Amino acid sequence: MSRINTNIPSLIGRRILTQQNEQLNVSLERLSTGLRINTGKDDPAGLIASEKLRSEGVAIKSAIGNIARAINVVSVAEAGLVEVNRLLTDLEDLVDRSANESGISTDERAANQLQIDAILSSINRIANSTEFQGRKLLSGDLGYNLSGVNNTSLAGVQVYAAKVPNDAFRSVVVEVTGSAQLAQLNYSGATVGTAGVTLEIQGALGTDTVSFAANAAISAVAFAINQTTNVTGVTASAAGTSLVFNSSKYGSSQFVSVRALDGTFAVTGGDSGSNKDYGRDATVTINGTVATTDGLRASARNANLSIDLDLSAAFGTLAGSSSSETFQILGGGANFQIAPRVTLAGLENIGVASISSGNLGNSTVGYLSSLASGQANQLSSGNYQAAQDIVRAAQDQISTLRGRLGAFQKNTLETTANALNVTLENTTAAESAIRDTDFAQQTSDLTRSQILVQSATNVLRLANTSPQNVLALLG
Questions:
Q1: pLDDT digits (tens, 9 = 90+) for 342-372
Q2: What's the farthest any 2 CA atoms get from each other in the chain?
Q3: CA atoms of 201 and 247, how far apart (whole Å)
Q4: What is the Cα–Cα distance from 349 to 343, expressed in whole angstroms?
Q5: Residue 31's pLDDT is what?
Q6: Which residues in the chain come in under a pLDDT of 50?
Q7: DSSP string, 80-145
Q8: Residue of 197, 200, 225 lying closest to 211 (CA atoms)
Q9: Is 357 strand, coil or helix?
Q10: Which helix (H) or strand (E) holds 441?
């Protein structure tokens, strides 16, 4: 080289050294932070993808946390229901022992009534004091708000779950397309005949035998049958020369059987010409879907609505366009957002109605509060069968609610949490593959960069000393 004003090899060496220093700094940054992408220029497309995955991961973690909180709420509610279940068991024991009228004294029955009053008070206290972070769980605060329910057609409405859009409502259209029926047998004649008769009367509750003298009027037969309705589940009515036997309730599980054990007593109307007839369940649609029915009770279960309806006899025995009722679910229930994306589809809910003594039971058998002192079914009234029916209806309600809460926890909350945990693992792995540093590769790159920096430094030093060779020409 004979030119010294411009040292081209030195410029080249400086450029290469700068590049190698930049690569060295990148390797040092990635190894110190553990991230392959620290700024947008490191990998623009990878940055976009990793930030989206990171956002999804945060949403998944929040959903898992929401599920954990929901499980806590359900667990607290069920703890209160466990104690109510125990109290109802004690209550039935008191009713059953008090029904043994000749075996206990008046004072003992009065003492039993005091215990019943205390149990009812405890149930009400549990209903009002079971809370989670100040939110009452069993007092009806987590029940659904309904509007437009026609109580003359719908004797009872129990909403277990409903997805209701924000600031909107969900309409429920109930239509009876097939009439519910009582089991029914008919007898024609003003009397039982000249020879007398002994009848076996059988229904869904049990069997009884009644005997009638010759020429006994059918009105006397109806009176005798109705005296044992609580035993058999069969009622009777007489008008003129017609005697009608009916089941006391509607539905395919109800039946009437009338058989002459002695004498002649021919009945008509039985299934396939027999002396036994079954009732029929109502055929009902709820929002266009065929409901599951049992007599006058209709149930619908789907992803958006879970509901039980008790139809009145007047409504449930109609069929056609006139037998339709509509009401609205305005909101309410216990709502839990358990999906990463906040939408109605990711919102799960369950209704928890009040378990106070005024709400346990139903309009058919009565309510638990009627067992208190001074009420219609207190022990001194002697309505032991009615009291037991009410207690058992209350037990069914509490057990059903516990079962629904348990199913909600196990089959909705816990299974969703398990799925989300797997999703979180995969999402985190995908983000890590894009964004995190591969230390094996990066340490190799660091070693390479260190060697290249040292090499470039030596080359630059040589390039800077090369022009000194020109001095030899000046000698």
A1: 888 888 889 898 999 999 988 778 899 999 9
A2: 163
A3: 11
A4: 13
A5: 75
A6: none
A7: HHHHHHHHHHHHHHHHHHHT-GGGS-HHHHHHHHHHHHHHHHHHHHHHHH-EETTEESSSSTBSEE
A8: 197
A9: coil
A10: helix 439-465
